[in-house]
TrEMBL record:
Record protein name field: EamA domain-containing protein
Pfam families in UniProt: EamA
InterPro entries assigned to the protein according to its UniProt record, in alphabetical order: EamA_dom, EmrE-like
Species in which this protein is naturally found: Desulfurella amilsii
Annotated transmembrane regions: 30-50, 56-77, 84-103, 115-137, 149-168, 180-202, 209-229, 235-255
GO cellular component labels: membrane
SUPFAM superfamilies referenced in this protein's UniProt entry, alphabetically: Multidrug resistance efflux transporter EmrE
Domain EamA: 2-101, 118-251
Lineage: Bacteria, Pseudomonadati, Campylobacterota, Desulfurellia, Desulfurellales
Alphabetized UniProt keyword annotations: Membrane, Transmembrane, Transmembrane helix
Keyword field contains Metal-binding: no
PANTHER family reported in the protein's UniProt record: ACYL-MALONYL CONDENSING ENZYME-RELATED, EAMA DOMAIN-CONTAINING PROTEIN
Amino acid sequence: MYRLDIAALILLLINILKKNKILPLSRKELLLGFLSGVFLALHFYFWIASLKYTSIASSVVLVSTNPFFVVLVSLFLMKEKITFKMVLALIVSFIGTIIITVNDGNLFSSKIDKVALFGDMLALIGAFSVSFYFIIGAQLRKSMDTNKYITVVYSSAAIFITIMVMFANVDAFHYSTRDFSFIFLLAIIPQLVGHSAFNWALKYLKATAIAITTLGEIIGSSILAYIFFAQTISLWQFVGIAFIISAIVISFKYGKV
């Protein structure tokens, strides 16, 4: 919530100081912008929650399956053609996802790890949510400039997730100054720099291509998780990651971008 709230407030302040015109918006732009924001909020709500229950590597790998949800949604809702090699990439990524979830949840043992399995499911819901965020963004960026788009979407996401937190009956004010410094960095670097770069590129590349670029998180986050949290990768996690990275390579080489 704070990540989105801070990012939205900074954007609004910049626009006020620069006297940028965000309004008026057409009914379609307003509706789709709000919807995109809702899916962005849901992405963070489920994905960040997953980190409490499963490992960083598994969470990031599973949330990074979003390019394949983008392909599936584009196929069924937007009637885009899909090549055999993209079908192969989907199958390979699905196998990798199954390997990771089976390993994390100990599904083939007598003691199923329901906690890790729950975290994996949350990460997958996060992946599904961000897919719609990219698809809607690709449509809106055809007519909206980057500043107007991210201001509308981040503000909508901030409002929606703030309401969710208000009804969640949690203490949102117990964080230390150190905690808030990290939250502020989340708003500045991953949100205002990272996500805004993706949204800028949506005007020039297909949503599938943008989604694929997010998959670099897999390697980087796994390395950082080992350095800072001593989280190692098991053999089967490594195999699952290898399948998903193979699918990424296939998508990037043969995908329609």
